Amino acid sequence: MHKKLTITVDENVYEGLHRVIGRRRISQFIETLVRPHVVSKDLLDAYREMARDERREVEATEWVEATISDIADETR
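Below the sequence we write its predicted structure tokens.
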């Protein structure tokens, strides 16, 4: 889900974004720059927490192995 955000930037930055990045691409450009600084730690922590859940890991492994065998049985 996307949320709308209003920010204030210097006029030169604004003009540079439009000139270099282009209209309708600025949001994605800013999100790509910002995401590693605000999401990765939480995401990494979530992956670590999932890995500590031994029951979940066993179920995930079983699912992956079953999926692989399904693919191996397909005809090309």
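Residues 1-37 form one domain.
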